[in-house]
Amino acid sequence: MIRIVLADDHPIVREGLHALLETQPDFEVIAECATGEEALRTVIQRQPDILLLDLEMPVIDGVETTRQIQQLTQHPRIIIFTAFDDDERIIHALQAGADGYLLKEAPREEIFKALRITMEGGSILQPIVATKLLRHVGQQRKIPTQSTPPPTPIEELTERELEVLHLLAQGMPNKEIASHLIISERTAKFHVSSIMSKLGATNRTEAVSLAAQNGLIRLRA
């Protein structure tokens, strides 16, 4: 059972999403929150598996809520679920530590899939979000001005790490990566950790973003 907390300041959105998620036998909505502060408090008290979080939240917005939750010793996986699709919001949310980014217009099956993939340790970006992320990456890779320092060189990835990285970019959790490459799940986890360390990423989604920014992979639009 995947234990989920919903955080959105619109009661109708929460009620509709709650009803939708509970049509699935492996989902359990354990709490609803109307503010970022309430979401943070609920995460600490209830220890959910996944927080489905809107960006526009009273008291503390979604990005800051994500950032504070990531500082907890134990924290859930976080999927941003919002109507906002501008580049800056996406980047800030991923940099804060979000594991995925879904738009509220996403089909129900895509929402279900995102929750299950994220629970297994994967990450999810909708095609439209990936497209906007690519555009941001393209802008970042333009020739820097005198006031903008060049990007910090990253440590070179091994051939095996590059294989793992490409599977990581597809949203695969460690178990699927291990099965695909015929290695143990522990070895897959080791490679993922090494990739994140070399790229200077704090989570899998940020690792994919940084890898694209450094030309190591190409995200599919």
UniProtKB/TrEMBL annotation:
Alphabetically ordered keywords of this record: DNA-binding, Phosphoprotein
Coiled-coil regions, chain positions: none
Superkingdom field: Bacteria
SUPFAM superfamilies in UniProt: C-terminal effector domain of the bipartite response regulators, CheY-like
A GO MF term: DNA binding
PROSITE patterns: HTH_LUXR_2, RESPONSE_REGULATORY
Domain Response regulatory: 3-119
Claim: Isomerase is one of the keywords in the record: no
Record-annotated HTH luxR-type domain positions: 150-215
Signal sequence range: none
UniProt record, GO biological process: phosphorelay signal transduction system; regulation of DNA-templated transcription
One Pfam family named in its UniProt record: GerE
Modified residues (4-aspartylphosphate): D54
InterPro entries assigned to the protein according to its UniProt record, in alphabetical order: CheY-like_superfamily, NreC/VraR/RcsB-like_REC, Sig_transdc_resp-reg_C-effctor, Sig_transdc_resp-reg_receiver, Tscrpt_reg_LuxR_C, WalR-like
PANTHER family in UniProt: TWO-COMPONENT RESPONSE REGULATOR
Protein name per its UniProtKB record: DNA-binding response regulator
Taxonomic source organism: Dictyobacter arantiisoli
